[in-house]
ABC transporter ATP-binding protein (Streptomyces chisholmiae), 566 residues
Amino acid sequence: MTAVRAALAPLWRLLPLVTRHRGAFWWTLGAGLLTQLGVLALGLLGAWLLTSTLRGDRAAVVPLAAALLLTAALCALTSWREAYVAHDLAYRVLADLRGRVFGALRRSLPARRRQRHSGDLGAVALGDVETLEWLYAHTAAQALVSGVLLAVTTGFSLLLTPWLLLAWGPALLVIVALPWCTGRMAARRGAELAAANAGLHAQVVETVAGLRELTEAGALGRHRAQLADGTRALSRAQRRVAAVGGLETAVADLAVAVAGAAALGIAATGMAGDPTLAPVTFTLATVALGPIGQLSNLLRNLGSLLASAGRIDAVLAAPPATVPPAAPAAPADGPLVFERVGFRYLPDGPAVLTDVALTVRPGETVALTGPSGGGKSTLVSLALRLWDPDQGRVTLGGVDLRELADAELRARVTAVPQQVDLLTGTVGENIALAAPEASAERLRAAAAAAGLLDPAAGLPRGLDTPVGERGAGLSGGQRARVGLARALLPEPRVLILDETLAHLDAHAEAALTAVLRARSADRVTLVVTHRASTLRAVDRVLGVHGGRVTPADAVTGPDPGAAPAH
Ligand SMILES: Nc1ncnc2c1ncn2[C@@H]1O[C@H](COP(=O)(O)OP(=O)(O)OP(=O)(O)O)[C@@H](O)[C@H]1O
């Protein structure tokens, strides 16, 4: 029993999603119940009409025929209403669930990305949400309706003849017992299918994103062969799931057919008493088989439903990469300080940053340089609070970043990453992402500071220049400038440039550096770079090597242009 409760736990934990749409759910339930009861009434009225005709009871025929017509019209009405409200509920639950899953992914993404592909996450977000939408929007209400209908037909059967229960009781037992017998195998096959699906999804996303690199490396053919392998693995998993499902369907259908034949036998042999009641008896028995079939359908899909619910539950329950402060502190202006910071990506992984002490004052531009894998980007991530340090703290104006509200932090510390990701739209829309409330003047000022409005930037349509998916249509330098304008728009207190200037030619880099310096009187500027010209232009150069920050000379050798580090 405990095992069953544990298996069903993810479904229960996700149940509040429907309770938030109680109104729509009750409408669906009510309309479904009316429709099913209407179908039962139609069957019974039809059978009664037949019985009256057989008995030659002419007085009953006209009112029964009228009642039959009226019930049919009402049935059509409730059936239409049920379809409408069920879909309304479906789309509400779908939107709600997707929003929650994406919200949870956003909170925990920096931590999760280390273990999972974005395609895999996409499969969770979209595929599993679709599955659960089907459960909560359609099946939960249908199962309740089936239960009520079964109770009603059982009551009628007992009034008429308890023998009828002998006809479909065993069928019900078989259908309920079947999923428990095949449950373990179905769960294993369902998990294999989900894994194959997510794997192929991840492969496809990666291939599309890396199409250019794969073509240039001449690796597209090999990659296509891998995709074909993934597709074959998926279809093998699908066949195995279909084999279990097919077996269950066959046994359930056989049980229902045997129950139908038994009901026919009971009706025909007069076990229900008056032989003229045979049509009513048979109708009652067969109407009861409808909900049994629906329950069988639900139970058959329980394995994949539980697998989807488990994965969504895991995403929703994943701890956030950073915990928002209960009572945010007031932000303050001042230096960006790393106080004896230590960090590792995985609890049992190597230390990536060790005992880092670093102070950058407002108005100062500090360059971080050093070998690949030294820890520069990790330092940047901690300044952006994508993660929290394991030891020490990072402060801005004396306030621990952990105590700042997320919106305050995002407006005060901005960065231009190595690869600027842009969304489909225009250059202006992409810049405005950082501060949608910013005026048109502020937007233009940020674009001008990033050099986007210079003819040399090569954007004759300026802010209206269209941008394709993931920045298609813009050069690396243009993307870097859009990223810079986006980072400048909120007028941050800390600006971080992670290899941004490397995308520009020497002339553009010098012009941009001059603009940034002129406008950074009260701003902390951190530049991650290997370029000698940039290193010469900053106030201080620090080396990051093996997770430690040292004066640059100790790492990179004497740099004639660099100011002494401390
Ligand atoms: N998401 C991650 N999960 C696990 N380890 C990571 C992750 N990101 C980086 N690392 C590891 O942390 C170390 C520091 O990486 P980081 O990207 O900070 O170096 P970097 O100095 O910025 O390198 P580069 O100059 O090549 O960008 C490396 O050993 C890297 O393999």
